[in-house]
Structure formats: structure tokens, C-alpha cells
Amino acid sequence: MKGRKLLMIPGPIEFEPEVISAMAVATTSHAVPNFIEVFGNSLALMKKIWMAPNGQPFIVAGSGTLAMDMAAANLVEKGDTVLVISTGYFGERFRDILERYGAKTTLLKAAIGETVDLAVIEEALKIKNYKMLTFTHVDTSTGVLVNPEPLAKLANKYNVLSVLDGVCSVAGEEIRQEEWGVDVVLTASQKAIGVPPGLALLVASQRAMKAWKARKTPVLSYYSDWANWYPIMKAYEERRPSYFGTPPVNLIVALETSLKIIAHEGLKNRIERHQRLASAFRASITSLGLKLVPGDKQAANTLTAIYYPENSNGAEFCAKMAANDVIVAGGLLSEIKATYFRVGHMGSVSSKDIIATISAIEQSLDAVGYKFEIGQGLSTFQRALIRLEALR
Ligand code: PMP
Question: Which residues line ligand 1 at a C-beta cut-off of 6 Å?
Fold first, then answer.
């Protein structure tokens, strides 16, 4: 690491050197042919990575919250009903955004570390007509992974639009937007997409675009309005110059670089790499006697949420981690905030990064007085990874 601290939070992540170098290329005009090509190619690559060949991709300057805002602003009109499935902090954020645009929401909230039962969701869809359903693929506050496929199928069965918050999942967890019938899959650049913060990215299905076109009232956010952005995306897809708001040129050059790296690795390989590393990491952590926030069946592969040992000082542990050159994130979900920490392992992450992280975890646990067998976490990780690699 040459004196640099290893960034192991759930976004921003460690970026590939080629992506960082791409950011440093002289900024060009957003209307010159070479940039138009980069933008157009990025939109085409998004459709591949989202597995949505007929979807409408959007690349807009902003963070993941803007991508959520865009879905809500464009698809909701005052009084529309939305079923919000929450597996943590970001589910509730979606509810707040939707309500800002006048939606009448129903929140189905999972117990901490759990998912909401499909039967409970179906029951809700049966007793009331909803326009839209939102859910979080990986809630970054709990590390809970939701399987989007059956949920999207349920939404289709009841003729409800589905919106997937994939901020902590796209390009790290499996997503087949078109096959599964998800209407909007949204994300941000700084996570498994592997580009510094600043891009809101989403792909809308043709059904979502139709629902937007059929609105009776104007979109209540000027910046989020697809009426402003859709012609721009179309123009770049058709390699024509256009302008609505100046695009973040350097970030989009970096985006194309990262999307090419992702396509080159191959989605299947990339998802399986995330699964192997996450599984071996979880085995390592539990072998140290620590407990995970999510139940085993719904643990994410892009990050892991871990309870501090009982009676230990979490702030002191995180400070020791930083002193050991690894930055991890503290808790986020208010109910349990002070009791757990989060390790991001997505994008360019390698087994070497995780080994360095486990080593720092062991050193920091020891420093806060936790009793365990030193080396146990490292050797469990090695054994688990070797076993998983052999199964490939
Ligand atoms: N949804 C999820 C699942 C997230 O993890 C985040 C960011 N941690 C957001 C939404 C919001 O994204 P941003 O911070 O980029 O606005």
C-alpha cells in the first residue's frame, strides 16, 4: 500500500489505477466527437451490465440519492400508492423521497438482519392496488441481500412497477433486469461500478418510460425530470451532440474505462468472485467468534456488517483499524448504530485486500482486549478460499 490506507468501506471503494488515470485526462468539450463516443459507449455498456438490452439508461451528475430521486420524481404523481420494502436505512430513505413527491406509501419493514417474507409482500399487494413497489437489493446499513427475482415477478403479477435500489449491488451482485422484469435498476458510481463518487446511474424499462410518458402532471423536480434528460441520452446513443446540463466529463471518461473493465472480466466471473471472497470473509469473521448482522441466507456479497465483541468500545476498535492502515465504516442503522461496523468488499477487491483487512481486524481486536486465537481468522479465510477456488 506504500503508506496509503486501504479503503474497505462500502463506497467509495478502492478504484482500479486505469480508472483513476482516466480521470486525469485533459477535460474536453461535452460536444466533441470523441467524448460523444465515450458517453454513447458507456450507455451501451450499462445496458449490457444491467442485462437490459431494451432498457433506457441514464447517466446524470449526482449521487445514488439522485438516482432514487429520479425514479420517484418521474414515476410518482401526487396520491400514487407505493409499497416500500425496507431492509434497513435506505428503504426508509426511499419512503421519504417518495412521500416528498406526494406518494402514499406503505412501509413493510424487515426485522434487523432479515428480509420481508414474500408471502407478506404478496398479501399487501392483494389487499390494495399499488402503482409501484420499491426494494433495496443490498441495504448497506445491514448487509442484507434481497433476491430481486421473485419480488419483481410478484410486482409483475399484480401489475405494479418495480424499482430496485442497486446502489450497493450493481456489478457486484447478480442482476438480470429484463429477464426478471425490474422496471428501474438504479445505482451510483462509487460502489461496485468502480468510479469515484459523482454519477447517478439508472436503467428504466420501456414500461417505466411509458408510465412516465403517461403522467398527467409535470415532474416536480426540474433537475430530475426525464423530459430534460431523455433527449440527451438519446442524442448520445445516436452519437449526436446535445446539451441540458454540463456532464461531468472526466467522471464519464472514467465510467467508460470501468465499465470496459467489468465487461472484460465478465459478469458471471465478477459476481462469483464477489461471492467467493464474501463467503470466505464471513467464515473468517465467525471463526473469530464475532457475529454478523444479517442471517446467513441473506448476507450480501458486496459488504459485511459485523457486531463488535460484547462490551468492547467500537470507536476505539475503528480507530485501531485506521492505525493499522485499513479504513472500515461504523454502524449506520440507528437502532444498532454503536454496536457494529461494516467492511466493504466490492469492485476491484482482491483476496490480498481481504487478507490485509482480516490481519488488521485481528490486531485491532487484540488491542481492544478481545480474547481469541491470533491467526484464526486469517487461516480460516485461506482455507475457505482455497476450497472455494477448487470448486470453480
Ligand atoms: N442506497 C443504498 C443501498 C446505498 O448504499 C446508498 C449509499 N450508501 C444510497 C442509496 C445513497 O447513495 P449516495 O450516498 O451515493 O447518495
Answer: 11, 63-65, 90, 136, 139-140, 165, 167-168, 188
Domains defined along the chain, listed by start: 17-265 (3.40.640.10), 267-390 (3.90.1150.10)
Q: Hey, which of 90, 189, 199 would you mutate to test ligand 1's pocket, going by the most ligand atoms within 8 Å of its Cβ? A: 90
Question: What separation in Å is there between the alpha carbon of 82 and the centre of ligand 1?
Answer: 20
In this prediction, what percent of the chain has a pLDDT beyond 90? 98
Please report the DSSP string for 73-117 in residue order.
Answer: HHH--TT-EEEEEESSHHHHHHHHHHHHTT-EEEEEEPPTT----
Indicate which residue's Cα is closest to atom 14 of ligand 1: 64
pTM tops 0.90, yes or no: yes
Query: What are the pLDDT digits (tens) for 168-179?
Result: 999 999 999 999
> Cell for 372?
481469541
Rounded distance from Cα 359 to ligand 1 centre (Å): 28
Q: 329 C-alpha to center of ligand 1: Å?
A: 14
Q: Which of 228, 240, 209 is nearest to 40 (CA)?
A: 240
Contact 320, 367 (CB under 8 A): yes
| Alpha carbon separation from 313 to 286, 318, 339, 367, 375 (Å, rounded) | 19, 9, 9, 11, 22
Q: First vs last Cα of the chain: how many Å apart? A: 29
CA distances from 382 to 300, 328, 342, 378 (A): 20, 21, 21, 6
Spacing, Cα 387 to ligand 1 middle (Å): 33
d(CA 95, ligand 1 centre) in Å: 14
Which secondary-structure segment (H or E) carries 265? helix 249-265
CB 133 within 8 A of CB 85: yes
Q: Whose CA is nearest to atom 9 of ligand 1?
A: 64
Q: What percent of the chain has pLDDT over 70?
A: 99
Average of pLDDT values for 194-218? 98
pLDDT of 1 > 60? The answer is: no
